[in-house]
Amino acid sequence: MKVVVALFDEEVSPRLDGCTGILVADDEIEAIIDLKQATCQQRLMEIVKQAPAMLLCGGVRRCDYFFLVHSGVQVLTGLSGSARTRLDEFRGGALRVDAPQIANQTKPGACRFRRRRQGG
């Protein structure tokens, strides 16, 4: 399975739109592609061009997430730390897309828009 990890130096990039490169890993080959001078759109196109089954990253904008999923790339977010360690964990089955997320433990309705108060 081909996997791409968004990099910020040797770590997992906290944001896809700010990554400095990508680690492209197949069963046999690993390569790092430098994207320091690339725009966000160019980064997305490079990821899609690599045709991975999975993207591992810290965070991704909503519109970029839907673009990647529509292009056939599964996205696993919320990761941090060493990119190679996370890649090894993913290959070992410790990281899965369907795993329960514990980072988002806000109260239901906490992110809803607040209504403007009407006073007189």
Helix and strand arrangement:
Elements: E1 3-8, E2 11-12, E3 21-25, E4 30-34, H1 40-50, E5 54-56, H2 62-70, E6 74-76, H3 83-92
Parallel strand pairs: 1-5, 5-6
Antiparallel strand pairs: 1-2, 1-3, 3-4
Short description:
This protein has 3 helices and 6 strands.
Radius of gyration: 17 Å
Structure summary, number of beta strands: 6
In DSSP terms, counting alpha (H) and pi (I) runs of 4 or more, how many helices?
3
Largest sheet: 6 strands, mixed
CATH architecture: 2-Layer Sandwich
Which class do the helix and strand fractions yield? alpha/beta
Observed structural traits:
120 residues, 3 helices, globular
What does the model show?
- The protein has 120 residues and is of the alpha/beta class.
- The chain has a single domain, classed as 2-Layer Sandwich (Nucleotidyltransferase, domain 5), CATH 3.30.420.130.
- The protein is built from three helices and six strands, in the order ββββαβαβα.
- Strands 1, 2, 3, 4, 5 and 6 form a six-stranded mixed beta sheet that branches.
- The longest helix has 11 residues, at 40-50.
- It is globular and about 65 Å long.
- The model is unreliable at 100-114 (pLDDT under 50).
